[in-house]
Design brief:
It holds the Pfam family GpA_ATPase. InterPro entries: GpA_ATPase, GpA_endonuclease, Phage_lambda_GpA-like, TFA_Chaperone. The chain has about 600 residues and is an alpha/beta fold. The chain folds into 3 domains: about 180 residues, Rossmann fold (3-Layer(aba) Sandwich); about 90 residues, no CATH class; about 280 residues, Nucleotidyltransferase, domain 5. The protein is built from 16 helices and 24 strands. The longest helix has 18 residues. It starts with 10 loop residues before the first strand and ends in a 43-residue tail after the last helix.
Amino acid sequence: MDAITDPSVTQVSVMKSARVGYTKILDHVIGYYLSHDPSPILVVQPRVEDAEDYSKTEIAPMLRDTPVLKDIAGEAKAKDSNQTILKKTFSNGANLTLVGANSPGGFRRITCRIILFDEVDGYPSGGAGAEGDQIALGIKRSETFWNRKIVLGSTPTVKETSRIEKAFKDSDQRYYYVPCPHCNEYQVLEWGGPDTPYGIKWEKDEYGNGLPETAYYVCRHHGCVIQASDKPGLIKRGEWRPSQPFRGHAGFHLWAGYSLFPNAAWKYLVAEWLRVKDDPLMRQTFINLVLGEPYEDRGEKALSERKLLERCEVWAAEVPDGVAVLTAGIDTQDDRFEIEVVGWGRSEESWSIAHDVIEGDLETDEPWLRLDAYLKQIWRRADGRGFAITAACMDSGGHHTQKVYHFCRARLARRLWAIKGESARGGKRSPVWPTKRITSRSKSSFKPIIIGVNAAKDTIRGRLHIEPPENTDPAPSYMHFPIDRDLHYFSQLLAERSVIKDSGGQRYRVWEQIPGRANEALDCRVYSYAALCGLMYMGLKLNLLADNIVGNPDRLIAPPAQPEIKTNLRFPGAIIPESTEDKPKRKHISQLLP
């Protein structure tokens, strides 16, 4: 309140958690500028429905129960256009307008001195339609006032995309410092973590389970133990301190650890953390709504292209020992195919056998013939024994849908499946391979297989986090890459990030492509993994097959009688080789079983 009423402050930004009383502060600001410094006020809520609800649950009771406001509000009259849920005028010249950030026309014909933006991270990400950014529109409404006040407040969402985080960084960034009751050293209350010696801590029982009721705070300076009963005294003696120079923009960060509300006691915060710490979606909710901080997936941050590049391995042959079956994923672009061949072993340990491109005019037959030849290739182990691609998934969602259908329909016997990613509205997580019996696979009626791309990407990203094995022992689910991969490949593999969306008050997690990043390598791996899931749905027992190959390697394709040289099929005009040997017969799934 002091900063908002300070003449030297033009803008105030509050990055906060829940349970800190911010809504009541907003009420008091409105009350002050209605009665003590009568002004036109604009309140911007995320949606029109939110604005109506705020007017009914906060503004109406305040006007009714506060004598000084009741006097200037007057009696509400039916059919009075100056006294509606979203617009109110007062006898002293003040007025109050409430709008929703989702309403493009809500900012028109409004001029206000006091602009209050509430929960700005909940504003529609696309702006107010063709009108532009909602915050910029609102600020524009105050340009004629030399003494205007702009207030932004919100719980943050995702780091680097959060509106309130950006506003807070542009401010003088004030934090609340409290004195340790033992050493009297001032410090900011922080959550801390298992690797930090300070912050909120708790005891564990003999089984390693956290005991929330034992919560206490460890002083940053001297390790003093601060009990929950000390919190009221800390808050009373605390003070705001800026961390950046003041240039008319005051910023405040406040989280639930400071709150004196009974349900924000440290023991309850610890209990919440223990309940959600292993769930990514709930963990973000805790970081946003309890810590008042933007969410950053530290695991994803640690997973860099360079770190993956350093894991690349040298293999004795194009197919390492341990591989039991090959699948392929084909991404269909306007002017090329991108293909990844993946080898799968016990417990879905995988090896990226090849990642290739076939270029050409996909409106002609020529590149499709090269793709067909590519998928017929034999991939050899160091002992010369070989593998054919057992199954492949091909993207049909681009500009060549009918051609993909025709190509795959003619090769159903080779388990070449046309696929399409599910719409995944609301963060839907369907199985990677559909569990319903697939119909309409005949030549007269053909439909693509709808795969669960969100679930596949969850699995792939999780497996990329698995640390490399220390030796050549089996590494369940680990993803191996050959030495010929480069940074560009891994940049594509990490081209999407997991983000939290909000729709109608429901939060959900989706994969979103990072602007400016190609994601073909990720798509190819998703499709190749989907092909494996399709094989297992049809009865493939991967572990049994891997064990059987170790015991009976002769079940693989025999070594070639003559040395083989693979033809580069990337560019138009490549000569498609004619095999002089008997082609291996396509095996039924039952023949892949021990």
